[in-house]
Design a protein that fits this description.
Organism: Actinoplanes missouriensis (strain ATCC 14538 / DSM 43046 / CBS 188.64 / JCM 3121 / NBRC 102363 / NCIMB 12654 / NRRL B-3342 / UNCC 431)
Oligomer: single chain
Keywords: CBS domain
CATH topology of the largest domain: SH3 type barrels
GO molecular function, one term: magnesium ion transmembrane transporter activity
GO cellular component, one term: membrane
Protein name: Putative magnesium transporter
Number of helices: 16
Distance between the termini: 20 Å
Largest sheet: 13 strands, mixed
CATH superfamily of the largest domain: PRC-barrel domain
Length: 424
């Protein structure tokens, strides 16, 4: 393990115990401030485990850190949710993107302003990890990212651990955007409200839509409320219609109407329809955009459709076959074909000859308990929803059922903490 480690480079690395079992991923480093003029001390790492739990790993437990992983020594892990103490900061959350001043060496020349892009810690003779160097992007008066990046000793940096009113978002965004939407949503929950809203607003419409789908309802509403209405409508357009409908349902009726009117009509239409169904029914939880094909579609064409990268895996796991038109509500629903069946058939075969029509589709008023029972009975990950004329309206997927069967606050980590210890 080297004696100098750059903290931003640790973000996202897997953490392993001595047996090679994965504990989680590094999300940040804990900086303890000193009452003296000595450099701040790195006292541990924050790791994210399964179920989005963030725990503290004392730096003394770390036996190696490299470009591939972090390895821990043998001992007990405290699984209590990590919380900052009054004299602590998080290196990446609190210090990255700070506007700082660098004084010249030996007091010669003018001061320079810049943006923090990374922080280095080094091991001293007392086996303490101290902040020793700061990577700074020179502020040029134009876009900060165009400035020269250089390193400065900690003693030359002013404003690193002061008030955060001059903290930007670009470098934290660069780290967050390497994460999956669910992990990014979890990271946003740990930020102070003002910082979280600022970072969320700086995301692209598509990325913000993906992240909102993974946040608790109260965080979704607050972030959306901080956007101007035109931007909020753009983000809602990029969410899955069922998720957009759920989010809008949390807003006052008047605000729902304003945002729906600002959305493109073809994007708002399925959302309006979903909001008309009774909560807790197939109509209210289904996605209105499953993969729908006409019976004369070839297997090769069907496989090309489900390979599209924007499709969620659970949606791409099967195709639904219906008479034209193929947009919901379709013509007569004929059946569905699982992707494994498609893989076993010649590319020139047509899907109309492969459909499984032996499972009765759901109606819009079918309740969640019945949906769950039927999906479990037939080992399905999605079921079609049809109207009285047997036209396909959408599909209920297993993630739709889980989202609405779990406790309402299941995405909110604060509601599900407990204290545990395990041997690593």
């Amino acid at each position: 393990m080297g004696t100098r480690v750059y903290l931003a480079r640790l973000a996202g690395l897997p953490v392993f115990d001595p047996n090679g079992d994965r504990v989680g991923r590094v999300r940040d480093a804990v900086v303890r401030l000193r009452t003296t003029n000595r450099p701040p001390q790195i006292v541990g790492l924050v790791a994210e485990m399964a179920l989005r739990r963030r725990i503290f790993l004392p730096i003394g437990r770390v036996t190696s850190m490299d470009a591939e992983s972090v390895v821990l020594s043998t001992g007990t892990l405290n699984l209590r949710r990590f919380e900052k103490r009054p004299n602590e900061l998080l290196a990446l959350e609190d210090l990255l993107d700070r506007r700082i001043t660098v004084v010249p060496e030996h007091g010669e020349g003018p001061d320079h302003t810049g943006i923090v892009v990374d922080i280095a810690m080094e091991l001293n003779r007392n086996t303490e990890w101290l902040v020793t160097r700061v990577a700074v992007r020179e502020h040029t008066g134009r876009l900060a990212r165009r400035g020269h990046v250089y390193q400065a000793d900690y003693e030359r940096v002013r404003g690193l651990v002061g008030p955060a009113d001059m903290q930007g978002t670009s470098n934290l965004l660069a780290l967050l955007e390497q994460m999956r939407p669910a992990d990014m949503a979890n990271a946003l929950q740990d930020l102070p409200d003002a910082r979280r809203n600022e970072v969320a607003a700086a995301l692209s419409d598509r990325k913000l839509a993906d992240v909102l789908e993974e946040l608790p309802e109260h965080d979704q509403v607050e972030i959306l409320a901080r956007l101007d209405r035109e931007r909020a409508a753009d983000v809602l357009e990029r969410m899955d219609p069922d998720d957009a409908a759920d989010l809008l349902a949390e807003l006052p009726k008047a605000e729902q109407m304003v945002l729906l009117d600002l959305m493109e009509p073809e994007e708002a239409a399925p959302v309006r329809q979903l909001m008309n169904y009774r909560p807790g029914t197939a109509g209210s939880v289904m996605t209105s955009e499953p993969v729908i094909l006409t019976p004369d579609t070839t297997v090769a064409e069907a496989l090309a459709r489900i390979r599209m990268p924007e499709l969620h895996p659970v949606v791409a796991a099967q195709v639904f076959v219906a008479r034209a038109p193929s947009a919901t509500p379709t013509g007569k629903y004929l059946g569905m074909v699982h992707f494994q069946r498609l893989l076993r058939e010649p590319p020139a075969s047509i899907v109309g000859g492969l459909v499984d029509s032996g499972i009765d589709p759901l109606r819009t008023d079918t309740g969640l308990t019945e949906i769950t029972r039927r999906m479990a009975t037939y080992d399905l990950i999605a079921m079609p929803v049809v109207d009285s004329a047997h036209r396909l309206l959408g599909a209920v997927t297993v993630d739709d059922v889980l989202d609405h069967s779990l406790p309402r606050d299941w995405r909110d980590r604060d509601a599900h903490d407990d204290d545990e210890q395990v041997e690593a």
